[in-house]
Amino acid sequence: MTCQSANPTPGADTARTAHRPILISAMQLEDELKSGERSVWDLIDTALQTGADGVELRRETWPRLDAELAEAARRIADAGLLVTYATQATLFSAPEASSQLRQDIDAAATLGAPIVRFFPGSTPPPDDQAAWARAQQVVDYAAARNTVIALENYARTPGGTLAEVQGALARLASPALGANLDMGNYPNHGQDVVEAIHALSDKIIAAHLKDKTANPDDPPAPLGAGVLPLAGILDALDQLPQPVYYIFEFRGAGDPVGGIERSLAYLRQRAGKSG
């Protein structure tokens, strides 16, 4: 998969590269989007205001999705922004949930989003041919819609460990199935993030960037505001040869623009040191 290239705009962030585009997420405005206090148009404006390369939109934080989907695609394209899509859906779902997975893929395709984030869910037993076949059909449907499923390691169980992600990627091997590396979730399972990056290697097509405080109950924080070994994690991600979407995934905490700008500054400072 090849990442789209955003059109540079005056004052755009100097950390921007076509190889590692930086996107903000609906997470930055999650509560406001769910309540209707803010809209997806505000999220697009925030991306432009901060100089980000694009936005990650989410079904669960988009109350007027059906009415606004086509207009969102138009505004994002007109603004020269990139877009990805994410939902809480699980690839390994009950038969009746398969239609939702296809609807999510269709929404991503309408947006022009090259990827859609799913979680694995509970891995079927190896001999459950029907469950594996359903998952394969979803992957094949994504391929037909020119969309890649980015399978993310979940923060809890099931579906949060490296073995679960690797198992799905191996058995459902397809150019339409890759990995979204969430750097904050592997530590929840006692797993090393850098080791996961090396293990997943060329399967990684996106990464959720965040920090974590020493208190495991705290929500994810902007980059540099926690205790994750970010330098090593980002070094490992940067060394991957393929394009990877870098997506900020932390809450706005009353100051969404501030959190985004601090995280962009962290990446700028890091790039300056490495340069």
List keywords for this structure.
single chain, 275 residues, alpha/beta, TIM Barrel, 8-stranded parallel barrel, 9 helices, 8 strands, 39% helix, globular, disordered N terminus
Q: How is this structure best described in words?
A:
The chain has 275 residues and is an alpha/beta fold. It has a single domain, classed as Alpha-Beta Barrel (TIM Barrel). 39% of the residues lie in helices and 17% in strands. It is built from 9 helices and 8 strands. It has helices at 30-35, 40-50, 65-78, 98-111, 129-144, 162-171, 193-200, 230-238, 256-274; strands at residues 22-25, 54-58, 82-92, 115-121, 148-152, 177-182, 204-209, 245-248. Strands 1-2-3-4-5-6-7-8 form an 8-stranded parallel beta barrel, surrounded by 5 helices. Helix 7 links the parallel strand 6 and strand 7 (204-209). The radius of gyration is 18 Å and the shape is globular. Residues 1-16 have low confidence and may be disordered.
